Amino acid sequence: MGELVMAAKITHVPSIWLSIQPGKHFGIRKPAEAALEEIGRRARERGADTFLVADTHWMNSIGFHLNGKERHSASYVSHELPHFIHDLEYDYAGDPELAELVREEIAAGGQKARVHTYKDLGLEYATLVPMYFMNGDSSIRVLPIGCNIYSTIEENRRIGEALLRAVRRSDRKVAFLASGSLSHAFPPNEIAESLLNDVSSEINRQVDMAVLDMWAEGRTADFVDMLPDYNRRCTGEGAMADTAMLFGLLGWRDYTGKGEQLCPYFGSSGTGQVVVDFPIPTEIA
Ligand SMILES: [Fe+2]
């Protein structure tokens, strides 16, 4: 029987990629770099053989989608911020078998999902930036699931439950990564560059800090009850689908694990960012 060995909320902001390039931004995201590397180290230590990544930059508008290619190999440039991320070469094994199990379980739960293997379907940077730090030797398979930007928190809770059923049916040790922001309000373009290291508003920062307290204290029931409102009021990235999948996978209101924060909360181009590793309850591992 397969096993869930990791469930983590992670950052993927392009400024982390800038941070490792020569130039004036070199080193600005050192703590986030270290946190992503630590997630990779822990995944290996726990025997993970697949990273299942809820990618908030693979934005779907109808249904749920998995990139089930045998191999992910290409060169990437961000259409959103080409000056931040370009010429990113990658080559990872995919996981068609787990993709199919996930599709079956999503369908069994009454929702629609498709597995794709189109040659031009590449990875997005919410997968690529973390993988660069976590999977440098490409030894762990990569399976992205997209985030439907028009989906509800409730739909994504059910997707998370389907992911867990699929993991259990597999023979894999799976590390699940919710790759997305906390608050995600971009500033107006005119002042965007001045907020490279900041959050758009004090309200968003305060709400994000309260969320981190809830996660650290295991107050998941309080958090998931307010998650639809949090998503709406703090401009959730990718409908906060990644976060809803994460807690759906972990047991939703019944989950009482205490998240371990691996880097200080930081602002990046107006958005709130963090890396948190959530313990897997023994009953679902
Ligand atoms: Fe993002």
TrEMBL record:
One of its GO terms (molecular function) is 3,4-dihydroxyphenylacetate 2,3-dioxygenase activity. InterPro entries: HPCD, Xdiol_dOase_suB. It is an enzyme of class 1 (oxidoreductase). CDD domains: HPCD. Residues 7-278 form the Extradiol ring-cleavage dioxygenase class III enzyme subunit B domain. Keywords: Oxidoreductase. The keyword Magnesium does not apply. Signal peptide: none annotated. Its EC number is 1.13.11.15. It comes from the Bacteria. This is 3,4-dihydroxyphenylacetate 2,3-dioxygenase. It comes from Streptosporangium roseum (strain ATCC 12428 / DSM 43021 / JCM 3005 / KCTC 9067 / NCIMB 10171 / NRRL 2505 / NI 9100).
